[in-house]
Amino acid sequence: MGVPTLIVKPSRNAGVATCLLVLAFLFETGCNKNEPVDEAKAGGKTTADFAADEYDYFRDMDMRPDGTVDANGNSRLKPLELTPDEIKGRNTWVLWSAGDEVFWDYLAGHSYGFMDLLKLCDFAPDDKVGGKRWGPVGLTIEPGTKVPGRPDQFGLYIRQPEDTTARQPDSKVYGHSSGIVGLRLFPNPKFDDKARKHWDAVKYRKDEHYYNDPNLVRPYRVGMSCVFCHVAPHPLNPPAEPEAPKWENLSTTIGAQYFRMRAVFGNLLKEDNLIYHLLDSQPPGTIDTSLIATDQINNTSTMNALWDFGARLDRSGYLDCRSPEYKKDYLARYGHNDFEQVSDESAKMPVLLYDPSHCDPSGAYANPRPVPRILLEGADSIGGWGALARVYLNIGMFSERWVTLQNLFIGFRKQQPFKVSDTEKNSVYWQVNKRNVDYLAKFFLKSTEPMRLKDAPGGKQLGKLKGEGVPWDPQLAAGRKVFAERCIICHSSKQPNGMNGAPKGPEKINPNELVEYLKDPSYRNWALAEVEKRDFWENNFLSTDLRIPVTLIKTNAARSLGSNAIPGHMWEDYSSDTYKNLPAVGKMTCWNPFAQQNVEWQPPGNGRGYYRPPPLVGIWATAPFLHNNACGLFNNDPSVKGRLEAFDDGIYRLLTPGKTDGEAETNRYLWPTGPSADVGTPINHATLERFKQDHGLIWRTPVETHLHIPAPYIQQFAAGVSPDWIRWLVNYPWICFAVLLLIGILVLLGSRRRVLGYIVLVLALLVGFFAVFIRGWFGDLNVMRTPAGTPVDMLANLDPDQIKITKPANLVVLARGMRSLRKPGTDAERKQAAELLEISTSPDLVLDRGHYFAKELSKQELDDLVDLLKTF
Q1: Cα separation of 179 and 120, whole Å?
Q2: Strand (E) or helix (H) holding 359
Q3: Which domain does 691 fall in, by range?
Q4: Is 688 helix (H, G, I), strand (E, B) or coil?
């Protein structure tokens, strides 16, 4: 008898099981990824490879009066005298991109065809804005550079230094000049032989399909330094030709007041794209810093001017940078804001400029700690060191980690926090910034003193200044009295300390009671006496830096509602626990332009709903006004005359009279000169009749639009907005198609359940169709067709938590709403608009409302106050 043979028959389900195992294996391997590190760490570099340069390349920038006048009576200016550390600070501010060139190159292929910074650096003869970057775009041409007569080796017209012998910064650290201040060029390490063969500069300029290819490798990567959003013509020495300034015509701290958001970050968009108008709705000189790490709110804010950095530290309660005598006198006379509690993770970041050599070493990581602020919303609460370090993260440093924590631009996916521990462990650039932050702070201590109108060329005459043009001049006593009775409670960093008979400072008052506290006899007497002292006006950045509820100031709420710094969101480590535990501000009133009535709305809590008073330093040079630059004339004119024209229009709009807030609001949007202008055109083409209907400026689409996604980006878009459980299918549709096809065939061949096999094959075909669609084989994707006249923020502020598969009713509301909006003036439109506003992160649509605190002033009192403001 022979040895028995073991025969194994394949199970009918073996193929199915095998396919499922393969699928599971691919899914598992897709989820197990190494912890990302930045490019410098991956390349074996250390902080020693990125030493800060102490050569003063920008000596003529940021000039200040030298105390003398010329033959015409104008103040002479001189360069700042900077120490080596202060020079390193300015070089860091102007040149250092902290490796963010990786991020901006990534965005060129992952921004859904919105933007490409390299195109801004190409000054070709057929440039679509005629070689200009200041007028139409709001960027600053780098002095001492010129457009070459012929293109470079890659066919691009990158501006080159006029003096080829002039010393240049180390290109390995700072890149090369791009011809635009704040943008630096780096060789692209991915631009290999294959990429070079594919590269065509002519197609790059003209062929939309070519430059919108996500796989296109560009010869340069563009890095961005902080000054990109902070440089502008110097108010005290403006250029004769803004398109061709000299270094002495520029300030690195005034803020990019003429910056055009859409022209920079939407420079590839066409007018029929909804995103074009979303970016256009951010007025010149403003930026939504949560545009990329989106919080689903269109919440633009001014490009901050940095004023009186030392006074900010004083107000925060940190005076160790001052002399012992100054510190003693200040604390004897003035109070400071309460320190704030931060998390253990956040407490790993030190107090800015803390010097343990002459202070208690433990104070370097104090908790609670002093918190000087720069930003206008209440979330700015981690202190100077953390704020300066975070700025680089927000413009792309360590993007290898950042892009994994969010769905860029579009959102509709829960953010993950960008942890301090991640950067500490995995980013060399973060380690470099730990050294550079103090250099920045030292530079700001030297460079942020006031720029007074009296020191600008012709300023005294053009501004019709009284006396010597300083706030303490005897001729301005009437204006000082108005300031003491109306403004000081929010707009002075010097406040009483409650000691030795002095009244309490506003930091000890319920913020909702601040206006009433102005009438307190003790506080009023203190204020009237204090404004008459010269040293009150010196080292005073004219803000308390306190959080004020939006329900009190009644300005547009969007910026105050940003959620990126609340628990569980992107910047949770960069806001204080004090901020996160603030009480909700209560109900606010918003205008519904469809129903033509006010509606009540309850903003969420956890810190949201607060602004801090903007400093009034340099107010003559920084119109338009409000946190979003929505109030006042924008004339694109940086001359002294132009700035004063904008100031005069904006300040009288801002300080409109009226017996009630409602009357002041009406007087603002019925201003005698009509809607505010944007370079000669009414802002957003708004008519006076539209201002009446909208109770102010509501930014509306001027043409019919849609959300346009170029075909090569459809898969990126779909993956970004998909729930976690379906994202794998979107990323790997052909694998799913092949597996389902194989399962269907196996079931048909090896099973009596043929119906099941047919069902699986139909599913496979559907998945195949889906794969063809998201790969863009059917062409571009156009969705959300929107009629002209639609409020941009009604769509930009839709709450993703309310619009998802688990809430199908709201998806129906959105679909119906988009149809009904095409029926203006109907009950259907009004009903659906109301439902859309109910699922909004901010239903507050009117941009230029609020701040009616001057409403009861007489015409004389208002003029006296304005005379004083011009001297700040």
Answers
A1: 10
A2: none
A3: 455-546+613-698+848-869
A4: helix
